[in-house]
Amino acid sequence: MHIYPLLIKEKLSNKILFMGKNLTDYIYKHTKLKSFLLFLILTILAEIAFSLIMPNFTEKSGYSILDMSTVYSVDDAYLKLNAINKAPNEYLVIRLIDTIFPILYGLMLSILSCIVYKRKYKDLNNYRWVLLVPILGAISDYIENIIIISLKLLLPKQFPIAIYV
Fold it and tell me: Which end of the chain has fewer CB atoms at under 10 Å, N or C?
């Protein structure tokens, strides 16, 4: 067994832990009610933008976007992906909004969690995990977006296993 891949894996995992620690420490030290309100307003504005563009996309394409569906089959997913061609401009706007939306709600929820944590607990040992959960949710949303965009770009080839990820 080669040691080099193990060293790379260890360095990478240490870097990710270090980045998570720095991010949560920064949020913890700089959290104020004003920053929560700012991210809350920005998140609400992004939601309003979604609600304004989504009906146009649904009307033109005949389907909602794949991100907004909770249960679907492989056939349904590919119908929705193919329907993007009927409303490409609206879909582009949705993608642009969805590029900033996860970071907005991730930071908003992390700041809210921090505010609640600071008021409820004085113990500084576990705050990183509390603040990291919304950030991990935002990262998951970005991964979902990357998978959906990849599936769209790879059409007409189909990868049914990726639909279930």
Answer: N
103: left (phi over 0), alpha (psi -120 to 50) or beta: alpha
Q: pLDDT per position in the chain (165 positions), as tens? A: 455 554 444 554 444 454 556 777 777 777 788 889 999 999 999 999 988 988 888 888 888 887 777 777 888 888 888 888 888 888 888 888 888 999 999 989 988 988 888 788 766 667 777 788 898 899 988 988 888 888 888 778 777 777 776
Give the per-residue SS3 of 80-113: HHHHHHHCHHHHHHHHHHHHHHHHHHHHHHHHHH
